[in-house]
Amino acid sequence: MAAVNSTSRATGQRLAVEIATTIVEHDLQDLCEATNAAIIEGGGFGWVQQQDRAVLARHFRGVLLVPDRLLFLARLDGVVVGSAQLVRPPRNNEAQAFAAQLTAVYIAPYARGFGLARLLLARVEEHAAGMGFRVLNLDVRETQESAIALFEALGYVRWGTHPAYARVDGRTVAGHHYYKLLEPGRGRSTGSLMGGA
């Protein structure tokens, strides 16, 4: 799928977000580097310790093989610096077929401040809505304060907190759960379909 391109108004940096169907070796290496940078910084991924590149490469190659997952790549001046995954509900879950899950969202610390995270989230939301999803769910560790501030600024609604959500550096941390209603390009509003949710 074609990339969504933009340019940072403040710096002139080229920003792009694309859906990966395959990944070339140099992009995979950039993605592994960005992932480890995000892990070391403490956010955006389930791992809490830096991973060997071979482990990360296997992970991302595996993501591309899962039919119900879409991998979005974020680029700064052509270099992959972050990603997000959109997870469709399993086919046997008809009751929640209207909702998708957003997971593993991050931009490497060295690529922040250009508006790329907002572009990445907007692209995922747009694609999810285009696929017919009306709700996007996500969860995040309470320690990821920048991510929380961004999600809330973009209209994600916190609906609950899990007090024993994760273990990081030998301590238990809470996690916050969010949702966002997605509006289709046409037809009835999501709020009217969901009973004013």
List the helices and strands and how they pair.
Blueprint: E1 4-7, E2 14-20, H1 25-41, H2 53-65, E3 69-76, E4 79-87, E5 99-107, H3 116-130, E6 135-141, H4 145-153, E7 157-168, E8 171-181, H5 190-193
Parallel strand pairs: 5-6
Antiparallel strand pairs: 1-2, 2-3, 3-4, 4-5, 6-8, 7-8
Helix pairs in contact: 1-2
Structure report:
- The chain has 197 residues and is of the alpha+beta class.
- It has one domain (10-193): Aminopeptidase.
- The protein is 29% helix and 34% strand.
- The protein has 5 helices and 8 strands, in the order ββααβββαβαββα.
- It has an 8-stranded mixed beta sheet with strand order 1-2-3-4-5-6-8-7, with helices on both faces.
- Helix 1 packs across helix 2.
- The protein starts with a strand and ends with a helix.
- The model has no long low-confidence stretch (mean pLDDT 90).
Number of strands: 8
Could you give a short account of the major beta sheet?
Answer: 8 strands, mixed
Query: Uncertain spans, ≥5 residues at pLDDT below 50?
Result: none
Span of the ends, CA to CA: 32 Å
Strand content: 25-35%
Helix content range: 25-40%
Radius of gyration: 17 Å
The arrangement of helices and strands along the chain is EEHHEEEHEHEEH
Coarse morphology: globular
CATH hierarchy class name: Alpha Beta
CATH architecture: 3-Layer(aba) Sandwich
Instruction: Enter the CATH topology name.
Output: Aminopeptidase
